[in-house]
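Reopening this ticket.

The earlier resolution said the output was attached, but the attachment link was broken on my side. Pasting everything inline this time so it's all in one place.
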Amino acid sequence: MRAVSILALAVTLSACVSRDVVYQRSLTTPHPGVAREDFEQIAELLSHRTRRSITKIEALPNNEVMVHTAFPGEGPNSGEDFALVKERGRWRTLTSRDTVIL
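Inline output:
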């Protein structure tokens, strides 16, 4: 029971971080196949949408990317996924969904 309480507190506290902290944490993620300027725009956009940091990004055809976000310490099967597309030089979110697999 104590471990569950500690885990719940850790997740709660990590959710209370500022948008800038989320953005800075996201920038540390490797982003092969995605230009630095594009990755920075994506990280900025998502820092306004979620308190989870980017943990993985995958470049797709047609100027699209799939991005996985998670809180520090969250398991690999938890977090949130976003599909984004670049149109007229700007990134926008196509879809998002929570991923929780127990």
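Reporter confirms the inline version is readable. The two ends are 18 Å apart (CA to CA). The chain has a mean pLDDT of 85.
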